[in-house]
Amino acid sequence: MSEIYNALDILRRLKDAGYDDFEHPYWWPGAGSFEVIMGAILTQNTRWERVEESLAQLKAKGLDTLDAVANADTGILQECIRRSGFYKSKSKYLQGVCRAIKQEYGDFDTFAVEVDRQWLLSQKGLGEESTDAILNYACFQEYFVVDRYTQRMLHTIGFEFDSYGEIQSWMQNGLKRYGEIYPDMERAQLYARFHGMIVECAKKDKKFTLFQTG
DNA sequence: ACCCAGGTGTTTC
DNA sequence: GAAACACATGGG
Predict the structure, then answer these.
(1) Is the CB of A45 within 7 Å of strand C?
(2) pLDDT tier at A24 (50, 70, 90 boundaries)?
(3) DSSP labels for A39-81?
(4) How much is the pLDDT for A1?
(5) Half-sphere exposure of A152 (CA within 13 A, CB side)
(6) pLDDT digit string (tens) for A155-193?
(7) Is the C-beta atom of A92 closer than 7 angstroms to strand C?
(8) A74 touches strand C (CB under 7 A)
(9) What average pLDDT does chain A have?
(10) Euclidean distance between CA atoms A118 and A139, whole angstroms
(11) Would you tell me how many other CB atoms lie within 10 Å of the CB of residue A93?
């Protein structure tokens, strides 16, 4: 098996192992929609299955639009997302972000076109990962999402980094020639699929044996 | 009973 | 800056 030297090698190995097998081209459920904002906050330090339950609860209460969440009763909102953990903080963040988006951009579609990374980072409850998840999966912008899975995978391979930004740069710079593997794919979609492959690999193969040497 | 999960904010050195 | 801690629920 060939060695891992850069992000392109990782991408190639995941693809060859069959992890590029998605129902949707952008992997994240509801990509391009308001739902991504909800999921990005709800999934913080929480299993995705809990997020799916919360999203279903929210939808059942009609809290699946920007306006509805912005105007929601806080108690109802908290009850819907309780099983995702940190429900008091997260309800505050969800509502705060939705209200800020309404005030600054008016509606989700305008937000998706006009928002930038700095604006998202200035919102309470949105750190680097959640911000990049929204930028990539809701706005289709070219930001690679660095999550705990990605960090663990890189550590398993033997790479050490000091910060989120270093990892993101290393991944994005290393993917400059991704066209060798995916000739006709948009860069934003490539980032999304790559991140998706890492997550699916992590779930199936918690120790990342696919990347263990020796 | 203990540890972890698709993080982030606050406090403290 | 970068550690240490709180935030909360639920499954292995």
Answers:
(1) yes
(2) very high
(3) HHHHTTTS-HHHHHHHHHHHHHTT--SHHHHHHS-HHHHHHHH
(4) 62
(5) 15
(6) 999 999 999 999 999 999 999 999 999 999 999 999 999
(7) no
(8) no
(9) 97
(10) 14
(11) 19
Report domain extents, chain A: 7-27+144-211, 35-138
Give me the half-sphere count of Cα atoms (radius 13 Å) on the Cβ side of residue A93.
24
Q: How far apart are CA A74 and CA A95, in angstroms?
A: 8
Domain A35-138 in CATH 1.10.340.30: yes
Distances in whole angstroms, Cα of residue A184 to Cα of each of A181, A189, A197: 9, 11, 18
Q: Extract the tokens encoding A106.
A: 């008016």
Residue A71 pLDDT > 80: yes
On the question of pLDDT at A122 being above 70, the answer is: yes
- A90: which nucleotide lies closest, measuring CA to C1'? C7
pLDDT at A214: 60
By CB neighbour count within 10 A (0-12 exposed, 13-18 middle, 19+ buried), where does A48 fall? middle
Tell me how far apart the alpha carbons of residues A188 and A185 are, in angstroms, rounded to a whole number. 8
The CATH number of the structural domain formed by A7-27+144-211 is 1.10.1670.10
The residue among A94, A93, A23 whose CA lies nearest residue A58 is A94
